[in-house]
Design brief:
Length: 362
């Protein structure tokens, strides 16, 4: 089978973007909840108060279930001291490998996967061999070059373990072991040129950002920059170096199967990729709206609006100059009064407990 060209990859990308479109919209909503960017209904004079409820729920789950330092456990294949010793060696090797991966990546990949599972209900992992980091054996070996080669090989770490953002990678939503992948990244043109010297640079500023699309299937691996193919080679591994999983908060719905003409790629991933906050969206927004109202009420009670029949600007200046516990002269006490505040009953404060309970139940 020939390698797919840029047009075929573009069609494939558009197809899977359509499949994941609704799930991506849901992730954008989760991002808004986590980063306190969602809209809150309020009167114009009120300042928005968004409590970090969503972020605290997600972070608490991640911190309690996933440690920064990975732990590797390998059971012995059979009873006996030799098998136990071999299992311990595998544990030590695996532990060292994962710890090194943690040190190399900008963010700990395992905690990043856990956060993606909690927040988006879906996570992707990438495992690959890094040829650049694996020192090549010299063609002509001398005593000095062999010593240098062995020293570099001893400290080399040729493994890539990363947790790409789900929005970045397109995978078949119904296959546990993907048979294709499209990985879209944004990189500086100068960095792309350094990695792929055969790219002509696109004729633009080397400091501009360019879109790099990596395509994988079981036979081929290719790279496109600005819709131009710059690499197409056989996939020497024979597998796709990505894995993915759903968190389990979502589920397939009857509507997914009622009309089979609408089934996308075997299922609707937006119904499976449900994050921890998916069922609490309305309650979290309601909590922010309630606390915004309470905050405005408290501020209005403390800093009440004054009304006067005298010159308001002059009276305001006098009050500002008098400061706390100062005296202000007025023609008559009847010429000045504070605006009355509404009386709040107990039910108003009980409403907050109802909202909080709905968030916890979600």
């Amino acid at each position: 089978m020939p390698a797919p060209d840029s047009g075929e990859i573009a069609v494939l990308r558009k197809f899977y973007e359509g499949i994941w479109e609704e799930a991506r919209k849901g992730w954008e909503t989760q991002d808004e909840l986590y980063n306190l960017e969602y809209k809150v209904k309020r009167i114009e004079a009120a300042s928005v108060y968004r409590p970090p409820t969503g972020a605290s729920k997600v972070d608490a789950m991640v911190d309690s279930l996933v440690t920064t330092d990975p732990v590797v456990t390998r059971k012995a294949k059979r009873p006996g001291e030799t098998h136990g010793t071999n299992a311990n060696k595998v544990e030590e090797w695996g532990q060292a490998l994962l710890e090194q991966a943690n040190r190399i990546e900008m963010t700990p990949p395992f905690k990043t996967m856990a956060k993606n599972l909690a927040l988006y209900g879906y996570a992707i992992g990438r495992t690959a061999w890094n040829d650049v980091a694996w020192t090549k054996k010299p063609r002509k070996m001398t005593t000095a070059s062999q010593a240098q080669f062995e020293a570099e090989r001893a400290v080399a770490f040729p493994f890539i373990l990363e947790a790409p953002h789900p929005y970045r990678v397109l995978l078949p939503p119904s296959k546990k072991q993907p048979d294709m992948a499209i990985d879209v990244t944004l990189r500086l043109a100068r960095d792309v040129k350094a990695q792929y010297p055969n790219w002509d640079g696109g004729g633009g500023d080397e400091w501009r950002t360019v879109e790099v699309v990596a395509h994988w299937d079981k036979l081929w691996q290719g790279v496109m920059v600005e819709d131009k193919a710059i690499k197409s080679v056989p996939n020497k591994w024979g597998f796709i170096p990505y894995c993915h999983a759903y968190a389990g908060f979502g589920h397939e719905r009857i509507s997914d199967w009622r009309n089979r003409d609408t089934i996308k790629g075997g299922l609707h991933p937006e119904n499976l990729a449900q994050g921890l906050l998916a069922k609490s969206i309305d309650a979290i927004v309601a909590e922010a709206e309630y606390l915004t109202a309470v905050h405005h009420l408290a501020m209005s009670t403390i800093y009440r609006v004054g009304m006067t029949t005298e010159n308001a600007a002059e009276l305001a200046q006098k009050m500002a100059e008098a400061g706390l516990a100062g005296f202000v002269g007025v023609g008559s006490l009847d010429s000045f009064k504070y605006m009355d505040m509404p009386q709040i009953n107990q039910w108003f404060f009980q409403q907050y407990q109802i909202v909080r309970r709905n968030i916890d139940q979600g």
